[in-house]
């Protein structure tokens, strides 16, 4: 089969799957909305563990209901019962007056819409973190968002956790996950030792969102509209959600320590004012350290899903190279002087195409990588949308990593821990050095 024939075949299969999904959605929503036709079905970008689809349910009179489908990727199911727990938690938060979407239907079975999933009403607003943090349209929202997140967390933590919510042991579970992956990171071991040395007060258990951060918020021009992506909801310590909000990765390059928009003091004060526990700065810092380590372990886990063949994905493959970002953030928290010195002497590879050496002729490997990267950014991305455009951008970034790695070559064996992490970060994401380190 030729390449064009294969591409046409893949397009035809996607079209068939879309037709089937529209029929499944129409059938499932009949009891909630009456007879409807499904229009404008489109998969949205982002989301490494769940698929997100936007669509309209159109009634016979022409009225439209804008909806979202969140489902497991077909063939990669989540834990049994996870979708029901997520739907029940969202519904409970909404019933308590919190900023949460309205869930219309859900299932843990794959026969309803191809995988376990839930359908909820679409909430207007912005989810892309960098727009929320930088666009002038969200200036007023940035001024109130940290306080609103503190109040949201307090309201959520006041909800009695259902008996079927998971109750993980945070540090023990991270250790077990690392052992199962067979991966070793000396920085992660340093962080685990620091967490063990000074455990925080035992609190709760309360209902914990588990992924409360920019990227999982829908923000309007003036305020928070909804908290989404509840797949990690569990029972645990209330400080976990607040520490996760302070993880440097979720500031997306902004300076403010809480989601890039506020201070820790502002967050804690709003949380207490809304009825939350009296958490202190040291306790919050422990959970920030834990959250940074946790995100690093999640990056390893998602990369392993690709490497094992369980779910081949350029996005998951790229996430594996983000592990060094979390190692760097852990060093900034645990050994800031060492990190600063390593940053000053780090290598500075670039992605400029190089005409030599050319042992196999021109274009060189560097020039070929540059040509493919330019094709993705200049032709594929402008001509596509949604998930395909997102993956094209990820693929272009991956080619940049490869080009920098080829230029830098192997890491020197005598490099110290901070220098080793700095060199790997210089390859994976050199712009990460430009982001503001955590405030003390």
How would you describe what is shown here?
- With 440 residues, the chain is α+β, with helices and mostly antiparallel strands.
- The chain has helices spanning 3-33, 82-95, 129-134, 139-157, 170-181, 186-197, 239-246, 264-273, 281-307, 314-320, 323-334, 336-344, 365-383, 386-408, 417-428; strands at residues 36-43, 51-59, 64-71, 103-107, 117-121, 206-208, 217-219, 224-227, 234-236.
- Helix 4 (139-157) packs across helix 8 (264-273), helix 6 packs antiparallel against helix 9 and helix 13 packs antiparallel against helix 14 (386-408).
- The radius of gyration is 23 Å and the shape is globular.
Fold topology:
Elements lengths: L2 H31 L2 E8 L7 E9 L4 E8 L10 H14 L7 E5 L9 E5 L7 H6 L4 H19 L12 H12 L4 H12 L8 E3 L8 E3 L4 E4 L6 E3 L2 H8 L17 H10 L7 H27 L6 H7 L2 H12 L1 H9 L20 H19 L2 H23 L8 H12 L12
Helix pairs in contact: 4-8, 5-9, 6-9, 6-11, 7-9, 9-10, 9-11, 11-12, 11-15, 13-14
Q: How much helicity do the residues have? A: 40-55%
What characteristic shape results from the CA principal axes? globular
Q: Largest sheet at a glance?
A: 5 strands, antiparallel
What's the gyration radius in Å? 23 Å
What is the N-to-C order of secondary-structure elements (H for helix, E for strand)? HEEEHEEHHHHEEEEHHHHHHHHH
The total of beta strands comes to: 9
Structural class: alpha+beta
Could you report the average pLDDT, rounded to the nearest whole number? 93
Biggest sheet, spatial arrangement of strands: 1-2-3-5-4
For this structure, the quaternary state is: single chain
Distance between the termini: 60 Å
Count of discrete alpha- or pi-helical segments spanning 4 or more residues? 15
Poorly predicted runs: none
Strand content: 5-15%
């Amino acid at each position: 089969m030729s390449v064009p024939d294969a591409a046409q075949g893949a397009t035809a299969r996607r079209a068939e799957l879309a037709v089937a999904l529209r029929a499944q959605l129409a059938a499932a929503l009949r009891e909630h909305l009456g007879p409807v036709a499904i229009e404008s079905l489109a998969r949205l970008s982002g989301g490494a563990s769940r698929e997100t689809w936007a669509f309209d349910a159109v009634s016979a009179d022409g009225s439209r209901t804008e909806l979202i489908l969140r489902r497991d990727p077909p063939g990669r199911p989540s834990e049994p019962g996870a979708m029901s727990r997520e739907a029940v938690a969202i519904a409970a938060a909404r019933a308590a007056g919190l900023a949460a979407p309205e869930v219309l239907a859900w299932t843990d079975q794959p026969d309803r819409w191809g995988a376990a999933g839930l359908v909820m009403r679409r909430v207007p607003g912005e989810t892309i973190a960098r727009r929320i943090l930088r666009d002038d349209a969200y200036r007023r929202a940035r001024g109130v968002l940290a306080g609103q997140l503190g109040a949201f967390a307090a309201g959520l933590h006041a909800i009695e956790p259902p008996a079927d919510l998971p109750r993980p042991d945070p540090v023990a579970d991270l250790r077990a996950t690392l052992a199962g992956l067979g991966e070793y990171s000396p920085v992660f071991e340093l962080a685990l030792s620091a967490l063990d040395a000074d455990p925080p007060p035992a609190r709760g258990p309360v209902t914990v969102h588990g992924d409360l951060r920019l990227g999982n918020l829908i923000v309007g021009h003036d305020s928070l509209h909804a908290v989404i992506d509840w797949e990690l909801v569990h029972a645990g310590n209330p400080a976990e959600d607040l520490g996760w909000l302070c993880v440097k990765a979720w500031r997306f390059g902004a300076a403010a320590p809480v989601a890039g928009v506020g201070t820790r003091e502002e967050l804690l004060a709003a949380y207490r004012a809304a009825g939350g526990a009296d958490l202190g700065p040291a306790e919050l810092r422990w959970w920030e350290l834990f959250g940074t380590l946790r995100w690093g372990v999640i990056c390893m886990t998602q990369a392993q899903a690709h490497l094992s063949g369980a779910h081949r994905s350029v996005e998951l493959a790229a996430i594996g190279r983000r592990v060094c970002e979390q190692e760097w953030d852990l060093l900034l928290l645990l050994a800031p002087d060492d990190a600063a010195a390593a940053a000053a002497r780090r290598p500075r590879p670039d992605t400029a195409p190089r005409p030599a050496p050319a042992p196999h002729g021109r274009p060189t490997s560097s020039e070929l990588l540059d040509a493919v990267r330019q094709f993705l950014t200049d032709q594929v991305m402008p001509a596509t949308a949604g998930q395909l455009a997102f993956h094209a951008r990820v693929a272009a970034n991956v080619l940049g990593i490869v080009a920098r790695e080829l230029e830098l070559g192997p890491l020197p064996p005598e490099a110290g821990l901070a220098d080793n992490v700095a060199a790997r970060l210089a390859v994976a994401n050199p712009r990460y050095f430009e982001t503001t380190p955590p405030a003390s």
